[in-house]
C-alpha cells in the first residue's frame, strides 16, 4: 500500500478546480504533471528576488542568478546520480534534447551506409530525429520490434546489432502501454557490440529514481514538466567523454569567448557550449524544486503509490467486459494503464470521461507507428501521479460503464488524430 495519503492533494492548487461543478480527476500525467506549490513558489521567488541574465552581468544580482541556475544543475546531477555536473545540459525538453543529440553526436558517428537502431515502440520524438538523420546521411533506420507489449529483450536487440550499426536509440518506458524496457541489459548488450546508446527517459524519470550510473547509457534525456516541474525545461545527460567532444548544436551568445571576424571560433566547454542564448533559468529552478519535492516525499513512496494505482486500475477495469486492458501494465508498473473499448472510438471514450471531469489521453499518443503495430486506431491512456487516488479509479470505472459509440468512427483518417 502507498504511504502517500490524500493530504498531498493540498500541495497542488489546480486540484481545487472544478469541471462543471465536479472535482477535476486528472489522469493525463504522462502528457504533463500538475505543479506543487513548492515549484510555483520557487519560480515566483526567483523572479521576485533574483531574476537577471546569467553568466553575462558583472554585478551581484547576475552572480546570484548564475548560482541559482548552476545549483539547479547540481540538483539534477545528484538526483539522477550522474558523475559530474557538467554532464547535465539543460534543454527545452525531451524532444529538443533528442534533436540535439541527433544533430551533433548523430551526425558525427552516422554516415552513408551505416545503421541506426530504434525500437518499435518509440514516441515520435525518439523516432523522427533518427529517421531524418538517416535520410540526410544515407544511413538506414532499423526498427526492432518487441514482444506483444513492445518490450525489447537483449537477444532481440543483439540480433540487429551488425557491424553497420553506429547508434541505438531506445525508450526506457513506453508512453503508450507503460512497458518497461530492461534498459541496463540493453545498454550493456549494445556496448558489448561497441555501439553507443541514447535513452528516452521521459516516462521513466517521473516514476522511480533513475540511477544514470546504473543504467550506463551514453545519453539519457527527460522533460521537467512530466516530473512536477515546469514546461520549457528538460535535461540531456551525456557521458563526459562523449558530451565534451560535441560540436555546438546552435551557436550564439553564451557559447564563445573572444570572437573576431577572422580567427577560427573557439567554443567554451560543455555544458555552456550546448546552451546557446539565454536559458530558461526560472524553469531550471522550478525543475530543481520539483526533484527536491519528490525526494522529500521519497522516491520509493512515489513508486509504491503509482504501482498501487496501476494495480487497482487494472483490477477495476477488468470488471468491465467492454474494456480491454492493453499490454501488461501491472506486470512491471510504470504509472500507465491503457485500454481500448472495441467498437468505440478512443475519442468518444475520452469525450465521455470528460463529461465527468476526468481527463485522460485518447488517440495515437504521438506514437502512431506502435499503435499501428498493435492493430489499433488509438488507445485511451490513464497515467498516474502522486495526487491520484483509488477513489478516482472507481470513478473512472463507473463512468466507463456508460460509454456508447458516438461521433467518431474507425474510418476517420488517422492524420486527424494526435
Ligand atoms: N518521449 C516520450 C516517451 C514521451 O512520452 C514524450 C512526451 N509525451 C516525449 C518523448 C516528448 O517530450 P516533450 O514533449 O516534453 O519534449
From TrEMBL:
The name this protein goes by in its record: cysteine desulfurase
GO biological process, one term: cysteine metabolic process
Gene name in the database record: sufS
Cofactor(s) the protein needs: pyridoxal 5'-phosphate
InterPro entries in the cross-refs: Aminotrans_V_dom, Cys_dSase_SufS, Cysteine_dSase, PyrdxlP-dep_Trfase, PyrdxlP-dep_Trfase_major, PyrdxlP-dep_Trfase_small
GO molecular function, one term: cysteine desulfurase activity
Enzyme class: transferase
Keyword check for Transferase: yes
Amino acid at each position: 500500500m502507498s504511504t502517500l495519503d490524500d493530504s498531498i492533494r493540498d500541495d497542488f492548487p489546480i486540484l481545487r478546480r472544478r469541471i462543471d461543478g465536479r472535482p477535476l480527476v486528472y489522469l493525463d500525467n504522462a502528457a504533463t504533471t500538475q505543479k506543487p506549490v513548492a515549484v510555483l513558489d520557487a519560480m515566483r521567488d526567483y523572479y521576485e528576488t533574483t531574476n537577471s541574465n546569467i553568466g553575462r552581468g558583472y554585478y551581484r544580482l547576475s552572480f546570484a542568478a548564475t548560482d541559482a541556475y548552476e545549483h539547479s544543475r547540481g540538483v539534477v546531477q545528484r538526483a539522477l546520480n550522474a558523475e559530474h555536473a557538467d554532464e547535465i545540459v539543460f534543454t527545452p525538453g525531451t524532444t529538443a534534447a533528442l534533436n540535439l543529440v541527433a544533430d551533433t553526436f548523430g551526425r558525427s558517428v552516422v554516415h552513408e551506409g551505416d545503421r541506426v537502431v530504434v525500437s518499435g515502440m518509440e514516441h515520435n520524438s525518439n523516432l523522427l530525429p533518427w529517421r531524418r538523420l538517416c535520410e540526410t546521411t544515407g544511413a538506414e533506420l532499423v526498427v526492432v520490434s518487441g514482444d506483444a507489449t513492445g518490450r525489447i529483450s537483449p537477444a532481440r536487440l543483439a540480433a540487429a546489432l551488425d557491424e553497420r550499426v553506429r547508434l541505438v536509440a531506445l525508450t526506457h518506458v513506453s508512453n503508450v502501454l507503460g512497458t518497461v524496457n530492461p534498459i541496463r541489459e540493453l545498454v550493456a548488450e549494445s556496448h558489448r557490440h561497441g555501439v553507443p546508446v541514447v535513452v528516452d527517459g521521459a516516462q521513466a524519470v517521473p516514476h522511480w529514481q533513475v540511477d544514470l550510473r546504473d543504467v550506463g547509457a551514453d545519453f539519457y534525456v527527460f522533460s521537467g514538466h512530466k516530473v512536477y516541474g515546469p514546461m520549457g525545461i528538460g535535461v540531456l545527460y551525456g557521458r563526459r567523454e562523449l558530451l565534451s567532444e560535441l560540436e555546438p548544436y546552435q551557436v550564439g551568445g553564451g557559447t564563445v569567448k573572444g570572437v573576431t571576424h577572422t580567427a577560427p571560433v573557439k567554443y567554451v566547454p560543455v555544458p555552456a557550449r550546448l546552451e546557446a542564448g539565454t536559458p530558461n533559468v526560472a524553469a531550471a529552478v522550478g525543475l530543481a524544486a520539483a526533484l527536491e519535492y519528490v525526494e522529500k516525499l521519497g522516491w520509493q513512496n512515489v513508486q509504491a503509490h503509482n504501482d498501487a494505482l496501476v494495480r487497482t486500475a487494472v483490477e477495476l477495469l477488468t470488471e468491465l467486459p467492454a474494456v480491454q486492458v492493453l499490454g501488461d501494465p501491472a506486470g512491471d508498473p510504470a504509472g500507465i494503464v491503457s485500454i481500448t473499448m472495441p467498437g468505440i472510438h478512443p475519442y468518444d471514450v475520452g469525450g465521455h470521461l470528460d463529461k465527468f471531469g476526468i481527463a485522460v489521453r485518447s488517440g495515437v499518443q504521438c506514437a502512431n507507428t506502435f499503435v499501428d503495430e498493435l492493430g489499433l486506431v488509438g488507445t485511451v491512456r490513464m497515467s498516474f501521479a502522486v495526487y491520484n487516488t483509488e477513489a478516482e479509479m472507481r470513478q473512472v470505472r463507473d463512468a466507463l460503464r456508460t460509454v456508447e459509440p458516438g461521433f467518431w468512427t474507425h474510418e476517420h483518417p488517422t492524420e486527424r488524430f494526435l
